[in-house]
Amino acid sequence: MNKQNINKIKLFLMGLENRFSENKSIFKSIHINFKDGLKDFKGIGTYEEGNIKYNFSGKTQILPINSLFNELCEDLSKYDSVTISYIERGSHILITGDNKNVKMTNKEVNEEESLNNENSQEGSLGHINETSTLLNRDYYIKIGKADDLLKEIGIMTKDGKIKNDKIRKYNQIDRYVELLEGILDTLPEDSTINILDCGCGKSYLTFVLNYYLTEVKKRKCFFIGLDYSKGVIESSKTMADHLGYRNMKFIASDIKDYAPDRNINVVISLHACDTATDMALAFGIRVKSDVIIAVPCCHRELLNQYSYEPFKHILKYGLLKSRMADVLTDGMRSMFLEAKGYDVSVVEYISPLETPKNLMIRALKTGDERQSIMEDYESLMKSLGAKPALFKMTNESWLSD
């Protein structure tokens, strides 16, 4: 290859070197194909602890990205042409060069991948239509493009079909992304979104959000999964390794013992039992999280506390008192968040036919604390003769700055 076009390729590689330094966590691989006449000489590089593990002509080296590109440029003069495929999660940069021309293109997937995805989607959708249980909607987590994710979290079979007994779960995770997309779009685009999942469990929705933000929305993000169970933490770490999701970490810890090492933009809590939801909300308030998302589970704490004289003839029925306690618990949680400066919405997450615990509380930090709402909240506590866990937790020592 002539010197002039080699220099053009060097400029493109300088850009890739900067890109790698900024986006190491989403780098997947680099494929290099030299041509000399009719002969091909192929090299492949994968991520190795901040460097590139590069195999070419039977030789494997661990190289910093700049050293790899220096070697590549030295080799260019020996060959007629080169094709360099730099692959990240959700994007593919292709550099081609010969003695006549040098070109760089940036696209989500290459033509071969698109064809495979279309074929995969056609087969999967055919299977789905047989079940007639998927929603009539344009899915956010699309079959074909998200197959690796869906297989890893157990929703899709190895041959690319949604499992019959996981269709409901597929609908739930997609609905989750739909409800969070708009509120996450309000966060600044020029910085990394740090998301803390409290009581992450198997972390399915964390993986789904990671995929969607990184590969669909092209947003820089980092996820922290927190759970006191070492077993589920190790399971989540294994799934992250399988998927190559390096922009996340999992910690076996109680939220009371966790001290974040970075600014937390989003706190999420899914189906945390009883006051565990309050603990996540209180933590989000304490760290001044921009967004707090909670899908509460069971409500026991307020049931045995509250009473209300005007409703005494209604609340004597245990079932009605229990349902009222559910409404009061989530209503007072939302009211407290408003008092702390959040704009709050309470929406239906999934159909009540699937589970009665189907509410999602979405809170977006929009301003300073609202003293008038806090006064109304405290007045309501007095009327009910109850002191909710969220109110108490914001005054406990483990939540003090």
From TrEMBL:
Organism of provenance: Clostridium putrefaciens
Gene3D superfamilies reported in the protein's UniProt record: Vaccinia Virus protein VP39 (3.40.50.150)
GO molecular function, one term: methyltransferase activity
Transmembrane parts of this sequence: none
Record-annotated Methyltransferase domain positions: 168-304
Record-given protein name: Methylase involved in ubiquinone/menaquinone biosynthesis
Keywords: Methyltransferase, Transferase, Ubiquinone
GO BP annotation list: methylation
This protein's GO CC annotations: cytoplasm
Keyword Methyltransferase: yes
Domain of life: Bacteria
